[in-house]
Design brief:
The structure holds 2 protein chains of 2 kinds. By secondary structure, chain A is an all-alpha fold. Chain A contains 5 helices and no strands. Chain A has one domain. Chain A is 75% helix and 0% strand. Chain A is flat, with a radius of gyration of 21 Å. Chain B is an all-alpha fold. Helix content of chain B is 71%, strand content 2%. Chain B has a two-stranded antiparallel ribbon. The chains are: A mainly alpha, B mainly alpha.
């Protein structure tokens, strides 16, 4: 084994230990890609159904599908599911603050109503 | 002490500080994009004049009818392209991590080719930017610019910021591809590719949110 290969092996060990990254392989990645594609097709499909667009289910359905896609990419492609808890905190903390701010702003500007008085 | 040991920067947590930094950066980027999305959602229905995103509008002074401006088929295609670029990116990272391991058949040789997957990721990223350039150009030709109304201002700011992030990501990927061609990437470079991949996937998840909140929800 030459010096560069030895360095690569050492670095690979450190990479694994340092980041605790033991992500999934091809068998998971392609399934994730198929699921993401199917959800995207589902989103576009419901967009073109006028009766569904007019129904109360339209908004929650789209938001749920989008949230599922978001979580799948973060968990599997960004391998947060397999990574250290600190990384999860660094991501979800600001995301929660940002989402709360989004809802607060929508409420303040009259896009969300609480009760009948609004 | 080996070269590889010197090149790593561990913090008191036992984690590499570059990886902590990219996650902290991604967290801050969440706040940036949510603020832009909030602004879009608040102002999109408050435009005094058209064109509008989902409904037609007739200009009272000229009688010209503007159709709903958002092009869902093109955007759906660009969303698919960006999702597939994320797949190519995870395969590039996997190929770099497993460089040097024996490849027994053609499938393993293809999966283990980091140059191929980095190239595919950059190509798909450029494809997404091409779709965005087409969309922006067609909007301007149809009469919607950043100055036309509140929808135009917030839409171009939000998608323009995202496009700028994709452009930075493509440049980063092409730089990594150049290094791979020049000297080859191995497991010692996996963390650098991992950091780049995290940025790229983040750009992807931001688009997942934008696609639903901006394009599909009326």
């Amino acid at each position: 084994m030459d010096h560069s290969n030895e360095a690569d092996v050492v670095a690979a060990d450190e990479h694994g230990a340092g980041s605790e990254h033991t992500g999934p392989g091809w068998s998971v990645y392609w399934k994730v890609a198929v699921v993401l594609t199917l959800i995207t097709i589902g989103e576009v499909w419901v967009y073109y159904i006028p009766a569904f667009v007019a129904s109360r289910l339209f908004l929650p359905t789209l938001l749920t599908m989008s949230a599922v896609k978001f979580v799948i990419v973060v968990m599997f492609y960004m391998h947060l599911k397999y990574d250290h808890k600190l990384f999860r905190t660094l991501f979800t903390g600001p995301l929660i603050v940002a989402t709360a701010t989004l809802f607060a702003l929508l409420f303040l500007f009259g896009h969300l109503r609480l009760g009948h008085g609004g | 002490m080996s070269t590889a040991t010197v090149s790593h920067h561990y913090s008191s947590t036992g984690l590499d500080n570059r990886k902590i930094a990219i996650w902290a950066f991604i967290g801050s980027e969440c706040m940036l994009f949510v603020s832009l999305i909030s602004t879009y959602l608040i102002y999109k229905d408050r435009s005094v004049v058209g064109p509008y995103p989902h409904t037609p509008w007739t200009d009272p002074s000229t009688g010209h009818v503007y159709h709903a401006i958002l092009n869902i088929p093109v955007t759906s295609a660009s969303t698919f392209i960006l999702l597939m670029s994320s797949l190519a990116m995870v395969l590039a990272l996997s190929a770099v991590e497993n460089k040097g391991k024996p490849q027994r058949n053609l499938g393993e040789r293809i999966l283990g080719n980091s140059k191929l997957w980095l190239f595919m990721t950059a190509l798909l990223g450029l494809g997404f930017l091409g779709c965005q350039a087409y969309e922006f150009t067609s909007f301007v030709n149809e009469g919607l610019t950043i100055k036309t109304n509140l929808f135009g201002s917030t839409f171009f700011t939000l998608t323009g910021f995202h496009g700028a992030h994709v452009t930075a990501g493509v440049i980063w990927i092409l730089s990594m591809l150049f290094i791979d061609i020049k000297r080859g990437l191995g497991p010692s470079d996996a963390l650098n590719v991992d950091i780049m991949a995290l940025y790229w996937h983040f750009v992807d998840v931001v688009w997942v949110a934008i696609f639903t909140l901006v394009y599909l929800i009326r």
